[in-house]
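User: I'm curious whether this sequence folds into something compact or stays loose and floppy. Could you predict its structure so I can see for myself?
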Amino acid sequence: MIKRSLPILALLLGCELGAATFTVKGGPNLSTLVSGYADKSLTGFQFSLAREWLLARNLFLAPELAFVRRGTAEGIPSFGSAVTNHIRFDCLEVPLLVRWRPGKTAVGIRPMLYAGGYAAYILAARSKVEYGGQSWMEPIIGDIERLDYGLVAGIGFEFPLFGRIFICEGRFHQGLRTLNKISFFQAWKTSSLSLLVGMRL
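Assistant: Here's the prediction. I'll summarize afterward.
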């Protein structure tokens, strides 16, 4: 699926359709893996390049190519508090979003809402286990599904500054695929909240 998505994204990023623009953006995220359990969030990050063009009045199509770090700071809650497992995923992600922008305010700020889906390929995964005052780290890429997919939604605004258009947005992402091949009581599904700041090129 990811191999099919990347050529399509490359075509979307490169094609010349009406009112198309490029945007670069990045920022931190807080992510977890275990739904329904109060696991500790991992602070990660995201950097992305987006192409956007007008579909209809105030409606835009916005595919992205992003590098994202997600995971959890306590990924084996079934063992209780004696063992903590800090899990980190580095992903190449392809969101496909539809944005809606109403008109500008009097000071040039333009709010926006967006939603869509994503496919992601996990490039690397590691586990840092801590127990009894000791810790050790190991790759776990062979123990997980490398393809993830899910839903994305967000809210934000644009504003002019120094002759450029800047973007600030909050994004929620929810993975739909169970990533752990090894059977635990908990299914590993990624979820995160991101704060992104960007600039139109």
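Summary: The domain at 2-200 is CATH 2.40.160.20 (Porin). The beta strands are 21-34, 42-56, 59-72, 83-100, 110-131, 134-139, 147-161, 164-175, 188-200.
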